[in-house]
Amino acid sequence: SALQAEGRGFEPLSSHTKSHPNDGFCCFMTWLADFQSNAQVRLEENTKKISDCLALIRESEFWHQANEHTLSIGTTLVHLRGNMTQYILSSLGGAPDQRVRDAEFATRGGLPQAEVWHAFRQTVDQVGTVIGQLTEAEALRVRPVQAYRLSGIGIVLHVVEHYSYHTGQIAYITKLLHQRTLGFYAGVNLNQTNPQ
Fold this sequence. Notes:
globular, 196 residues, mainly alpha, two-stranded antiparallel sheet
């Protein structure tokens, strides 16, 4: 579940073991598998946070824009989907890059919340699959993406941090509209210090 995934993300995944497909022995997770697993956990974690927000957001609030310089939750999801599609599904997954970035920000309404969320969830699932299929050679290969040149690792890092950045914005909008805490870390002792 997403909650289990969130907890797993706080564990040292490199200390986990998994069975090697070619023998009966157990081997340590490779650096790439560890990276992929952590990236997928963060994607799941952010998706769960947004889902919690949308459980509170009414249809009329979904496209609410505080001013011309801010994004609504709906526009943010459309933009995130465009970013993930270009960086992961196209650059890493080989799909054609048909992104029109300006059109994402021009989307100010007209689509039901459920429809936008369903399409977004499908994209996130596809992104997780492509990340899981990343080979070591493709993880290290530098290639052009948007206006940059990034390795596969750099692309995944960008998408995860970009997703987290906008997830925070959606959480902030939700708190402003509903004047309440969201309880993302309920039951987790965030005051716990590292072992000596």
